[in-house]
Amino acid sequence: MRPRRGESGFTLLEIICVLAIIVMLAAIALPAFPRGTSKAMLEAYALETAALLKADRNAAIRRGAAVATDLSAISRTIHSGATGRVLQLPQDVGFNAVLASQCDRHAAGLAIEFLPSGMSCGGTIFLSRLGTTLEVRVTWLTGGVEIVPSNAY
Question: Which of 13, 14, 31, 134 lies in the 20 to 30 Å Cα band around 67?
Fold first, then answer.
């Protein structure tokens, strides 16, 4: 059978079959791609960290007693001293902290402590992923918490 002039091309059935094959291959291949923490998720972790620190500062002022936010680089967690809430960071997010060695005349180093006056021992938490580093800074004098982009990690 010879195709007539203007009747060459693909049928609708052939196009649907090719599309179905492409969809099946994509369904098999896409889960194999690594799903790392995006820049937006890194910013979300920094915001959650800052919110947890602010809640601990407010709790220290409200209770009239010191509240410590514990940090663990080994378990990759930030643990609220006021609520007991634990923020777990994923393995692909770099986690480091610079903390005061002494606070309120006693040894510190594993926590950021907030005092009843609103002051704190201060410290900086570094969260990084793929060349992006965010610093969550706690000012010792005011206990204020801020998130700052950083170039160094």
Answer: 134
95-134, pLDDT tens digit by residue? 999 998 887 676 767 899 999 999 998 999 999 988 899 9
- Confirm if 70 and 108 have CB atoms less than 8 A apart: no
Overall fold of domain 39-150: minor pseudopilin epsh fold (3.55.40)
What's the full length of the chain, in residues? 153
Three-class HEC string of 108-142 = CCCEEEECCCCCECCEEEEEEECCEEEEEEECCCC
> Whole-prediction pTM value?
0.75
**Residue 132 to residue 147: CA distance in whole angstroms:** 13
* Domain residue extents for the chain: 39-150
* Structure confidence at residue 26 (pLDDT): 86
